[in-house]
Amino acid sequence: MNAAPTLPPSANAPRVWEQFQPATSVVRRQRRIPTRSTVARERVELAQAQLADCHLCLHHCGTNRLAGPSGRCHAGANARFFAAQTDVSDELELLPSFAVSLSGCNLRCDFCITGGPSWNPRAGSDLDAARLADRARDALVQGARTVMILGGEPTIHLPALLELVAALPDDACLVLKTNACFTPSARPLLAGLFDVWLPDLKFGNAECADRLAAIPHAADYWNTVTNNLLWMAAEQDTAEVIVRHLLMPGHVDCCWEPAARWLSQHLPAAKVSLRTGYWPAWHAARHPELRLPLARTELNRALALANECRLNLIP
Ligand code: SF4
Fold this sequence. Notes:
Elements: H1 16-19, H2 23-30, H3 36-50, E1 80-87, E2 97-102, H4 115-119, E3 125-126, H5 129-141, E4 146-150, H6 158-167, E5 174-178, H7 187-190, E6 196-199, H8 206-213, H9 221-233, E7 240-246, H10 252-266, E8 271-275, H11 296-308, E9 312-313
Parallel strand pairs: 2-4, 4-5, 5-6, 6-7, 7-8, 8-9
Antiparallel strand pairs: 1-2, 1-3
Helix pairs in contact: 3-6, 5-6, 10-11
Iron/sulfur cluster binds at residues 54-57, 59-61, 63, 65, 71-73, 75, 106, 156.
């Protein structure tokens, strides 16, 4: 019997927080450029204007969200949030993190662990940036290392996301957790604001993206996300990139392998967070292969592939 593959040595490397300073604020001060909060505030109006003809994500709905909820995400002009709490369940080096989860998403992942509020932009409470920022400040004082903004999908609420960034302390280590399905029109409004990008590379091919998350082939999931990963990595002088992949049963060959090989070739130094705790949540039972947790044999194969690709896995 083969021995179980082990995590590569890089998994034992210093955690990002031990080597990492909140680069955005430090670099901005050194270069005498406007603070993060100032930049974010200046971008709110531009982001608001984009809602009038929304092409913020790969669905390119072209609807007027200022007139009311519309488009595939069913989001309007105002954002809500369904959770804001100190979280200890993400990447170890980012924890504890004060995490704010915005309601609503542009994808329809049947295996979503927070499917109800993630799919529903009307879930939760109105987003009050100043109040959330006060709570984030309290959490930081109490020992939170980072502030994380996530969803649903936070980038579909770009104006509210920018308002929240503008309200947060400039020296907070700010993490954006995203499905990375935003378009180039969103990039200039997101650029330079985050200390850590935490994007998902969920699917390795268009067929799985379509079947499991209702992303039509024409939306070009793979190229949209991988181009965004390359764009995030280009911010490496001011930001860290941690690429996440949820390992799903029956999807090692079709999703993890293409993702691992692409990362190996194009972002060999990127940190990779292989999420191995899949649980059949939400509408997962619609798909026979997703009805059970991950088998040990699949986990071993996935880790062997990571070793073969010399990926920089982090816990
Ligand atoms: S964010 Fe995406 S899904 Fe929502 S309306 Fe805009 S283009 Fe459509």
